[in-house]
Specification:
The chain is an alpha/beta fold. The chain folds into 2 domains: 124 residues, Rossmann fold (3-Layer(aba) Sandwich), CATH 3.40.50; 124 residues, Rossmann fold, CATH 3.40.50. The protein contains 12 helices and 10 strands. A 4-stranded parallel β-sheet has the order 4-3-5-6, with helices on both faces. Strands 8-7-9-10 form a 4-stranded parallel β-sheet. The protein has a two-stranded antiparallel sheet with strand order 1-2. The N and C termini lie far apart (76 Å).
C-alpha cells in the first residue's frame, strides 16, 4: 500500500509540474504587463491588461472581437456595426464627448481619429489612449492587429489571425494573377462618382490582384480620392465596377446600368458589377479577407 501511495504521489507531482510548466509557457506567449507600443499618438504604455476598453474605431472594434477580447470591451462608437454583438452606444469617434467616454470608466480607449485634442483630454483624466490612424498598407494593417493583441494580452491570437489572413489573401492573389491580369476596375465610393486610386489602402487590393485602376489617371492632385465624371468612366469602360455605396446610398447593378451611357461599359455589358458592403470596403481589419474573396469571385465569373 505504501508503494502505491508513493507512486500515486509521484504521478501527482509530475502532473502538477507539467501543469505549471504549461501555464508558464502560455503566460510567456502573451503580453506581460506593462507593455509599450508606438502608435499614431507616440509611445503608449499599458500598465496592466485592460478590462474596460472603449473603442471609437470600427476597424479596431472588429479586430478586438476577432482576437477574442469581447469580454474586455465595454462600449464602442455608433459606427462600429460589426459584429452585431458589439456593445454599441451613441458615442461618436468624429465628434467625441470626453465626459460621455469617461463615464464608462475605461482603462483603455482606442481611436482612429483625434479630433479637438481628444487623446490629450482623456490623458488628463488618467485614461490611456491608443490612436491607430488609418493603415496605409497591408503591412500597416497587420501591425495594428499585432499591436492590439499586445496591449490586450492576446499576442498569440493576433499572430494567428495575421497568419491566417496572409495565407488566405496570398492564395487568392496567386489564383487571380495566374488567371487574368490587366483588367481594369472602377471603385465607387459614392453615387456622385468619388473613387479611390492605387495610392489608397483599398486601391492596393486591386493592385495586388493585378487590376488596373481607372481612377489613377484622373487623380491630378495625388489626393487618392478623385471625383470622376460620368463621361470619364464611360470612356474608360472598366471591366469591373465595384460598388462600395450599396448601404449608404442604395446603389445596385440595375441603378448603375440605368445611368445615361453606362450600358456601353464593359462591366455593365458582362454583368461584372460587384456589390460590397460599405464597411468592408472602408476598414482595414480582419474582413480584408472578405474584400479579397468578393473580388476573387468576380474575377472567377469573368473567366467563365
Amino acid at each position: 500500500m505504501l508503494r502505491s501511495f508513493v507512486l500515486l504521489a509521484g504521478a501527482a507531482l509530475v502532473a502538477l509540474a507539467l501543469s505549471v510548466a504549461g501555464a508558464s509557457a502560455r503566460a510567456s506567449a502573451t503580453s506581460s504587463f506593462p507593455v509599450t507600443v508606438v502608435a499614431s499618438n507616440g509611445k503608449v504604455t499599458v500598465t496592466k491588461r485592460p478590462s474596460r476598453i472603449v473603442s471609437l474605431s470600427p476597424t479596431a472594434t472588429e479586430t478586438l472581437f476577432a482576437l477574442g477580447a469581447a469580454s474586455q470591451v465595454v462600449a464602442v462608437d455608433d459606427q462600429s456595426d460589426f459584429p452585431k454583438t458589439t456593445p454599441q452606444t451613441s458615442l461618436s469617434g468624429f465628434t467625441p464627448n470626453v465626459e460621455a467616454i469617461a463615464a464608462y470608466r475605461p482603462d483603455l480607449v482606442v481611436i482612429a481619429y483625434d479630433p479637438k485634442g481628444l487623446s490629450d483630454a482623456l490623458g488628463r483624466l488618467g485614461i490611456t489612449v491608443l490612436h491607430q490612424d488609418g493603415a496605409k498598407s497591408f503591412k500597416g494593417a497587420y501591425q495594428q492587429i499585432r499591436q492590439l493583441g499586445k496591449v490586450t494580452g492576446r499576442d498569440v491570437a493576433a499572430a494567428t489571425l495575421v497568419t491566417r489572413m496572409r495565407t488566405k489573401i496570398a492564395a487568392m492573389v496567386k489564383e487571380a494573377r495566374q488567371a487574368r491580369s490587366g483588367l481594369s476596375v472602377y471603385h465607387e465610393l459614392t453615387p456622385d462618382l468619388y473613387s479611390a486610386t492605387s495610392r489608397t489602402f483599398v486601391g492596393q487590393v486591386y493592385t495586388a490582384l493585378g487590376l488596373r485602376n481607372i481612377a489613377d489617371e484622373a487623380d491630378a492632385l495625388g489626393y487618392g480620392y478623385p471625383q470622376l465624371s460620368s463621361e470619364y468612366v464611360v470612356s474608360a469602360s472598366p471591366d469591373i465596377v465595384v460598388l462600395a455605396d450599396t448601404v449608404c446610398c442604395g446603389q445596385k447593378p440595375s441603378s448603375v446600368a440605368a445611368r445615361p451611357g453606362w450600358d456601353r461599359i464593359n462591366a455593365v455589358r458582362t454583368g461584372s458589377i460587384v456589390r460590397i458592403h460599405d464597411s468592408i470596403a472602408s476598414r482595414w481589419g480582419p474582413r480584408l479577407v472578405d474584400f479579397f474573396r468578393a473580388m476573387s469571385s468576380a474575377l472567377a465569373r469573368l473567366r467563365q
